[in-house]
Amino acid sequence: MATRDNNSKKVTPVLRISQLDALELNKALEQLVWSQFTRCFHGFKPGILAHFEPELKAFLWLFLWRYTIYSKNATVGQTILNIQYKNDLSQMQKYQTLSKQQKLWYLICTVGGKWLEERCYDLFSNRPLELFQRTKYVINLVVGVLRLCELLNFLIFLQKGKFATLTERILGISSVFCQPQNVRQIGFEYMNRELLWHGFAEFLIFLLPLINIQKLKLKVSSWSLPISGCPRNENNSVACYKECSLCGQWPIMPHTIGCSHVFCYYCIKSNYLFDLYFTCPKCGTEVQDLQPLKYKIEMKEVDTQ
Questions:
Q1: Please, are residues 65 and 111 in contact by the beta-carbon 8 Å criterion?
Q2: Alpha-carbon distance 72 to 196, whole Å?
Q3: 114: helix, coil or strand?
Q4: CA–CA gap between residue 18 and residue 173 (Å, rounded)
Q5: Which DSSP string corresponds to 22-69?
Q6: Residue 274's closest CA among 246, 241, 243, 242?
Q7: What is the pTM (predicted TM-score) of this model?
Q8: Of 49, 145, 260, 293, which is the most exposed, with the fewest CB atoms less than 10 Å away?
Q9: 3-class SS of residue 86
């Protein structure tokens, strides 16, 4: 029944980017498995796995092949992306699983090829020097030819979209989707809301430095408090000069800005340097001329104390 269901499935071609993503996921999985395996021997003598590293890797890749390609016709990366291999040598248009020969040759080309690439020099290291040099030259020549074939295969893959690796082309296995790909309904409400708030935040970041918070605060306080000036009475005039209109303390080096109110020199100077259009918080008068308070008034205030 399972084979009938597989054979009845329609074949859906796979995008190039999906095939390349599956290859990258396979590489990442191999690195993850090997790092987890070597971590088990972290407390042992350093270099304990160096002599048997190619064989250990081959055993791990064999274990992965048994539970991926052999049983599911797909690698781990392909399974994540809903992809699996199809027997491209069959003339039927419907889906055909890989034959056992294709699976075994896939094992030999991938696992065996990696093991031979790492062990080839060690196998001939005990031979005479002249024979070793010839063998090394032949091995380098074969590796160079394989690399060139892989490059040509990749260029053909970019053009036609089939057989991402040279092994797939030689064995006649191609990638197809396990199930037909449905059109996904994508809602953009969340994205629109995020873009709106992001734009609003950028607008505030641009606008806030242009707003004079201190002047605005003084303006609001002048609206909320009744506008008052110092009366002409001499006794009340002395009382008006007893405190700074900004800090509310005894005015140090008292100065005026053209109105009847008094400010500490450092209070009015710092506010005026910060805002050239500074106005009196009590009467709203703009700074006309920063002048020190008259000496006779200061002496009167001192005498009253």
A1: yes
A2: 46
A3: helix
A4: 16
A5: HHHHHHHHHHHHHHHHHHTTTTS-TTTTSTTHHHHHHHHHHHHHHHTH
A6: 246
A7: 0.55
A8: 145
A9: strand
